[in-house]
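Hi, here's the filled form for the chain we discussed.

Project: internal
Contact: R.S.
Residues: 330
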Amino acid sequence: MDFDDPVFGFEAINSDAQLWVSVLCDGSLEDDEDEWLEHQRIPGQIYEAAVPLLAALQPKQFSFVLRQFLPDGLGPTPFEEIQFEYRSRELLDAFIADNVNEYERRLVSCMTSECRPSPCPDLTWVIDLYQDSPRMAFEVMEAYLHAHIWVLHDKAIDGILDAMAIMRYRLNRDLGPDFVVQSLRALTSRELEYLVAALWHKLGYSVIVTPATRDGGRDVEARMDVPGQKLTTFIEVKQWSAGVNVSVVRDLIGVLTDERTAKGVVVAPGGFTKGPDSATELAERNPRIELVDGPLLGEMLANNFGEKWFLRIDRLIQEVKRAVLSGSTS
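And the returned structure, exactly as it came back:
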């Protein structure tokens, strides 16, 4: 196959999901032949079509594909080689003085020894973990990104997020109409909080995700500071297996009163209790409270991030995490 051919070359492959997946799964290209081919991340123009195709692969091919996206812990990346070239004197002096963090220690060791393990450790072992404990596998990948996101090349970050998208889609692809709600319910409580923060940020609010403990009765603070539309909203996020009960709504009303805040929202993919003295009944009597269940949250996400938002759950979560850490969510 002539990959430089203008008709059937890399432009064609990176624009055709079926063709791109077949070339990726073939695995026959040498490293020096496929520099042009996006193989550590999914090309943006075919993303929505490629994720379902990759998620439907047979087990051996599926594992092979995930290995293409996840860091393998073998040797430095070109980005790390360049980084060391420009910072070598500084890093070596800091290394001798024992004044480096663990990533820098591994980088110096990698670049100055014959044994060349990657400064960023192997992550492919989560493929085995995913078979028996998918949620734990996602937690590991989240933790890996949290520890390394400031030193990973964008392509490596995209590869990990793409692997997560494929893995999530494979878990939920056979659920039919329940796909959206189950995709939300598969998130950890903390992941859901960040996804909700991403949504309210998209709606035009500055957002703060409160600490996991001692959150003051709200998980997300959303503030609208546009003149004539100043509004503060406290959002409580509940990832419960059963419907959220009236006590949660009652507690949030108390927080709103104490903090003199205008509005409260409870987000719960598992829904809310109904009937007399229920979460739904109390919210209906209190105009400051809004309840958002799984279907409504899915609709809001689709309206703001597109119909295939669920393919980018982890990307949305990571984007708002980085924004929160850098203070740019205002």
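Let me know if anything looks off before we file it.
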